[in-house]
Amino acid sequence: MAELRSLVVVLGDQLDLDASGFDAFDASVDAVWMAEVAEESTHVWSSKPRTVMFLAAMRHFALALQAAGRPLHYTRLDAPGNAGSAGSLAAQLQADILRLKPARLVMTAPGDWRVLEAIKAVAEANDLPLDIHEDRHFFSSIADFAAHAKGRKSLRMEYFYREQRKRHEVLMQGDEPVGGQWNFDADNREAFGAAGPGAVPPRTVFEPDAVTREVIELVETRFAQHPGRLDSFAWPVTRAQALQALQAFIRERLPLFGRYQDAMWPGDPWLYHAHLSAALNLKLLNPREVVAAAVAAHRDGHAPLAGVEGFVRQILGWREYVRGVYWTQMPGYLERNALDAQQDLPAWFWTGATNMACLHDALAQTLEHGYANHIQRLMVTGLYTLMLGVQPKQVHAWYLAVYVDAVEWVELPNTLGMSQYADGGVMGSKPYIATGKYIQRMSPHCKGCRYDPAQRSGDSACPFTTLYWDFLMRHESMLAKNPRMALQVKNVARLTDTQKQAVIERAAAIRRGKVGAEAGVAAGAGSDA
């Protein structure tokens, strides 16, 4: 066998034939390496939809590599002799290095610090050069973000976003933003009326083919005890499907995306959202083509500026911003716990067995589809764990486990920083807290719930409202120093000692699992996997 010059390592979230790791690829002396390993589904208790999403997309990408004439060494999870079948990516890579004897390893920069360190260790142990190429999938590099952050007392997405707009000439007229303003949030974020969302376009679905059905069968057998369901799995797992999903969103949902991006409706998880984040994060789509399609829709008069700007903000602004935070703050970022939150994650987060209507709806759809929209993540599941005081790493592990779009570079800052305020303000200028009245305003969940969002104590009090007041009292001294929280903190002074004590007692009952869980569901963590 001819000497192997480069073994190009491709991870499950790098499914792009034009990735930088393939620069200078020569099929006569180079080969691609991919492997399915158990660790990627067990280092967190990965849900069945998430595992199927990754494995099905990987297997389809393997077929695309072969069609492109790129030599491939691909190890399936169920292949005989798979060193990663009960172990790690590093173990399988080590076994294949000994077998293939490459002169060097090449890869596009990973999106996960843990994986990067593991691959570095394998390369070092085998005395192999490891060439890591910048990930061109993003608008900005880590060096770009570091330069933006240098010398700033605090990081704020808005300033970074405006720089991005100017630099990449997105929705700009010369040096000024199209429409004369950078932010159209005031024109977005409406709730649905009493009649509901109406005739929302159906979700774009992709019937599992033979490759995906084989993966579903494998996951149902190998990870039978993991959370989630697969009977409705219909995510795009190929480049062609991802492009079809993008086109459908632009055509059918983008015109009303901005107006209803924060609205919720029971039993309808899809609404006017894009459902493209998994395809983006697995690199089946490039953010440049996604942004360009949205901008073109505005230019052609198909979608209003406010909604298009709101969508572009999520891709060009927020997505790039969280990646910069992750790579400039790791590895210590993972351990941050600014609020000293130590509560265990309720076990019913893994089952949906709660009698709180909004949480039950968000958790049930998450477990069925591996999906929840951003407002459900921030202001339902995330809001609850923040005010309950759940240990941030447990919240992080849950979010990383259950969502099909979860890759650590994007999930961790959004969860630990934006949602849980565990970074003390790196990601956001204040904790995002609210009573149950917020959920009542943005959805009809409260109409069918046993709890009253207007009550902070007593048997009928909404746990969100109780925990809101409890949170303000527990963190009063810290929050009082934050100008954006001053008014909320002042409201605590309106409470009598008797009212405060009632809140404290009700909050304690919630933390003991006496409130919110359905009968027989304990309050402790769902898995130590």
Can you give a write-up of this model?
It is a single chain. Helix 6 (157-168) packs across helix 12 (305-329), helix 8 (239-252) packs parallel to helix 11 and helix 15 packs across helix 16. Strands 3-2-1-4-5 form a five-stranded parallel beta sheet, with helices on both faces. Strands 6-7 form a two-stranded antiparallel ribbon. Helices cover 45% and strands 5% of the residues. The chain has three domains: 6-133, HUPs (Rossmann fold); 142-201 and 253-329, Serine Threonine Protein Phosphatase 5, Tetratricopeptide repeat; 347-511, DNA Cyclobutane Dipyrimidine Photolyase, subunit A, domain 3 (Orthogonal Bundle), CATH 1.10.579.10. The protein starts with 5 loop residues before the first strand and ends in an 18-residue tail after the last helix. It is mainly α.
The CATH topology assignment of the largest domain is DNA Cyclobutane Dipyrimidine Photolyase, subunit A, domain 3
Strand content: 5-15%
Count of discrete alpha- or pi-helical segments spanning 4 or more residues: 21
Low-pLDDT windows of residues: 525-529
> What pattern of helices and strands is seen along the backbone?
EEHHEHEHEHHEEHHHHHHHHHHHHHHH
Number of strands: 7
